[in-house]
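Session log. Operator J.P. requested a structure for one protein chain; no other inputs attached. Running the standard single-chain path with token output.
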Amino acid sequence: MVRVKRGIISMKRRRNILRQVKGYRFGRSKKERQAKEAIAHAGVHAFAHRRKKKGEFRRLFTVRINAATRALGISYSKFIDALHKKNIELDRKILSQIANQNPEVFEKIVKEATK
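Structure written below.
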């Protein structure tokens, strides 16, 4: 009978796992069990933090808009309320970019909303 050498698939799996944890510290980068656990935890955190990042950016946009509107003598909440009442549909991301890069255009938007 022909001799069958095994372990090709298991070695491939092990190599892939250890490739994913390259740069991790201590046993997590060298031992298969610890590496698997590290990958699982990293995946959980990555998923949660992708969701969290959206809220963090929204808070950043709010702060930027608030700073720009305060300089023009109106509060953030009153500005957003005025936008809704005038049906001006610009989201917070765009408003914060305009406030940051084009203050004169933002001033026009504020005046249009608060007329």
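Operator note: The chain is about 75% helix and 0% strand.
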